[in-house]
Amino acid sequence: MRSKAGFLCALAAVTVLAGCASPGTRGRAPSAQGNAAPARPAVLDKAALLALYATPHREDGTVLAGAHAGAHWTKWTKPDGSAELSAAHGLFADSGRFAIRDNRVCWRWSQIDSGRETCMRVMKVGDNEYKTFAPDGSEGSSFRVAPP
After folding, report:
1. Separation in Å, CA 122 to CA 9, 12, 85, 111, 130
2. For residue 73, which of 24, 38, 87, 139 is within the disulfide window of CB 3.0 to 4.6 Å?
3. pLDDT tens for each residue of 53-78
């Protein structure tokens, strides 16, 4: 039987990670995409999403380091569409796939959201700073590409 602290930690990790793919309650994504200057926030299009997620930045793929509601996570994505996730200091892990559809990144994890695909827009908000937004415009996670 798990200790109470271990159970609560695992429960918190799953709850937070489910929020990564579910609508949040904070900011709103812009509804239209424009040709914004690099310093201004801009919703990424399909080409930019492919460059971000499917172009390896290092030998083990693209490594994204982020947070959702204060909980940190790391995702590894590969050009073949596979993805791995670690969160809660390694207490939670999942594997899945990602695809780029209609200027959105779509995730299907083995455990998160019971394997249902969820899609979100990604906005570049600064130099190597990104935010995700659910279809209703609510803010999801913030992340960076980890250096090689």
Report:
1. 28, 25, 18, 22, 7
2. 87
3. 988 877 777 899 999 878 899 999 99
